[in-house]
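Quick log. Single chain, no ligands specified.
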Amino acid sequence: MTITKVNTLPHLPPDPAHPYTSGAWTPVFDEYNADGMEVIGEIPKDIDGIYVRNSENPAFGSIGLYHPFDGDGMIHAISFQDGKASYRNRFVRTKGLMAEIEAGRPLWAGIADDPRLSTRPGWGAHGHIKDSSSTDVVVHAGQILSTFYQCGEGYRLDPYTLDQYGTEGWTPIDGISAHPKLDEATGELLFFNYSTHAPYMHYGVVGPDNKLKHYIPVETPGPRLPHDMAFTKNYSIIADLPLFWDPAILAKGRHAARFYPEIPTRFAIIPRYGQPEDIRWFEAAPTYVLHWMNAWEEGDEIVLEGYFQEDPSPAPLKTDMPDPRMAQMMAYLDENSFKPKFHRWRFNLVTGETKEERLDDRLLEFGTFNQAWAGQKTRYAYSTFTEPGRFLFDGVVKHDMQTGQSQTLSFGKGRYGSEAPFAPRVGATEEDDGYLVSFITDMVENRSECVLIDCKDFDAGPVCRIILPHRISSGTHACWADGPTVRAAAS
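-> predicted structure:
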């Protein structure tokens, strides 16, 4: 066993009373390299790749009320090869974080407070908040790309060492939103962004050589707040959702999101290298969707799956926190409040009609599937469920869309997971032949683990549990990268 603490980042003590800087969300400031860690069970030899998770991990917090989405990006990565595992974690050295380290204090207001409290200009769609690069992560062209939901610059890191290469060179002036999509079949990266100035949204394609190949406007009636996108073999899908900044308040320089139930949800269907005049718009029931699952072409239709929110503007939760704004924040972070349900949309390219159907009435979100099937019809989908009242993943559900059956696996009492991407077994030929990978924060044992769940034997639970060198903060978005592909791109 070799565990090395390589650095402790300067920071301020986290607030022990804040629900998202305490408990399972307590941030960590030590950066580690670890090999030969303790393993409960045995690491399979038929897994080769890297599990990468981003985290909201605040070093200095924010001016005013802290929101977890304000937290600094921290990348946790564990690589697998020949039955062995190696772990690394690093803060993303964003421009904002480095400025706060120099100042020794927070310099920006968070999204829950008045942006005019910020002492310096911000980045991206909001304009006054720090680009913390803490939302999403993908591995493209042999490197990690970390992104920020409010459209930041994008930061590149080495997948194995987490060495940092700074901001992404092809980033447009309006930034990169969270959730750019990798098409493993072509090596292309599809992305979007949004802003407060016309045409308000853009869509682009980056080639496997990490050069910008295509970039077009996607005009909407005003500023919008999409969070995710999807793609098929020939099309990309961008959503215009009826939850966006209140125009009257935005005109005064403040940002307050409102849900407008009288406005339909709209979907832009864009040929992958299409022009603005090629965009087809489809309307559907008003909702907000944080995350899509997969999309594919089926005859004259495009099929899209994701999580339809039944209450995108939930009532505040009851809380004993002294700041009344905390009650609304807690509601927006609680799936039991905004009620996301697994849902399917069908867009007919001939008739222009949209059809919708509910796939599961349980509260589910943060879906994953075998990315080798991205853009193609998938049989299996994996969704997380959460603890009521808190943004903590309790377990995962496997859906068999062919039989309509599902299996549910709990992480266990006091054990909270991360987004769990699918890692194909080496040499796999079947869609569910592989593992779900997740980091677990165990509040009972006061430690963190990486677990592998065999999707062919889902009910059996983890085949192994790798004990990490420290208890890490709870986190959200993660991805899996194929080892041979990453090593080939880096050579």
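The chain has a mean pLDDT of 96.
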